[in-house]
Amino acid sequence: MTMLRIDREGAGLKTIDLAAAKAALGELKNGTGKGNDFIGWVKLPKDYDKEEFARVKAAGKRVREKDEAFVIIGIGGSYLGARAAIELLKSPRHNEVKDGPALYFIGNGISGSDIAQVLELVKGKELYINVISKSGTTLEPALAFRIFKDYMEKTYGKEGCRERILCTTDKARGALKGLADKEGYECFVIPDDIGGRYSVLTPVGLLPMAAAGIDIDRVMKAADENMDRFLKEDDENPALIYAASRYALYSAGKKVEIFSYPGESMRFMAEWWKQLYGESEGKEHKGLFPASCEITADLQSLGQYIQDGERMLMETIVRFDTEGVEVKVPFEADNADGLNYVAGKDYDEIFMAAAKGIKKAHIDGGVPCLEIVADRPCEESFAEMVVFYETACAVSGYMLGVNPFNQPGVEEYKKNMFALLGKK
Ligand code: PA5
């Protein structure tokens, strides 16, 4: 079992209110908190539909066997978790490394040029599609699906589409479910009691992961083991320490939490985290604004503000003990670039020095830092991070007094957009 840990020393907090965090966790476990009809993700790692899980694996295998192209259509909670897993456990350059079908995420915005590019890239290739939408009515994925469905029907005929179009949606409601039943597409269920941003361990995330060659048995096993750990009302529970520390920093006037992560393969984990925390906590004019910073790329840009700008920031540095890959700096006799001081060192070692230096500089500059460390990128640590951040987020929301499972604010822009587009 991997062992995520948290270090709160750099946060400069004398005490944190673990009793309040435990009370919030109690509300979550007992189902007595706000939004308690959306806490199915808590028991999910133990209690998921095993028959459907086998179908997810079989569909993933089919897609991998064709080995050409897989288009994944979805937005927000129906998109970010799967992409986070694939970029972390496979590669942000997955399509250039020959490992199963090329994967294309689309329907996560409104760009005609993105759609046109992906259509062009998949033309002539064996294509499978997974359209993911719980409501089945979200404009961005629905539009993309209409376009790709048209392409698929012209290419494979209605019969061929039945094998190649996979739908992940509500078990009974919504336009996508109606359409899938009418056309005879295979469907996977997003349970009623699990909201989009908590759905990565349902078929929403698992089917794209399986198609990318990620071992989803390992993911679910680790999710189960770690969920038990993060649900303990225990002073050492890192999820409680994280929630109580960020609450203390928010109460002390911090307004923004920066999720600082190590390199490109974690970029979508940060995007997933931003959605989880932003959409769960940002209510009733409360909550830390979730921002992110890539170490060290963004330190050459945002670094100035973090070090020296307005002091409303706190930071959570997220890293691994090792990336699990050894890349050593070679020695050069003439040392023309002056880098022999790092010759023989591994990238992990250089990163560690950078992370330590960054943390010290930011603390000295008045930015309190938490540090969250996982073993190495693998199925187990991915699952561990998912259930850690989900549990800590729900506890944080309850500590703040908001419902961490709704998103009333998101409806506002949609109302305006639909009115302008003439939707009845
Ligand atoms: O967390 C959420 O609920 C949202 O981000 C949704 O996942 C997102 O809006 C997509 O919704 P849907 O799956 O209904 O298309």
Notes on the protein architecture:
- This protein is α/β, with parallel strands linked by helices and 424 residues long.
- It folds into 2 domains: 5-34 and 220-400, Glucose-6-phosphate isomerase like protein, domain 1 (Rossmann fold, 3-Layer(aba) Sandwich); 38-216, Rossmann fold.
- The protein is built from 15 helices and 10 strands.
- Strands 1-10-9-7-8 form a 5-stranded mixed sheet, with helices on both faces. A 5-stranded parallel sheet has the order 3-2-4-5-6, with helices on both faces.
- Helix 1 crosses helix 14, helix 4 packs parallel to helix 8 and helix 4 packs antiparallel against helix 11 (267-281).
- The longest helix has 26 residues, at 139-164.
- The protein starts with a strand and ends with a helix.
- The model has no long low-confidence stretch (mean pLDDT 96).
- The structure holds 5-phosphoarabinonic acid.
- Residues 75-78, 133-135, 138, 141, 195-197, 279, 407 line the site of 5-phosphoarabinonic acid.
Write the layout of secondary structure elements.
Layout: E1 5-7, H1 18-30, H2 40-43, H3 50-66, E2 69-73, H4 80-89, E3 102-106, H5 112-122, E4 127-133, H6 139-164, E5 165-169, H7 175-183, E6 186-189, H8 203-211, H9 216-230, H10 238-251, E7 256-262, H11 267-281, E8 289-295, H12 303-308, E9 313-320, H13 347-364, E10 369-374, H14 379-400, H15 410-421
Parallel strand pairs: 2-3, 2-4, 4-5, 5-6, 7-8, 7-9, 9-10
Antiparallel strand pairs: 1-10
Helix pairs in contact: 1-10, 1-14, 3-8, 4-8, 4-11, 9-14, 10-14, 11-14
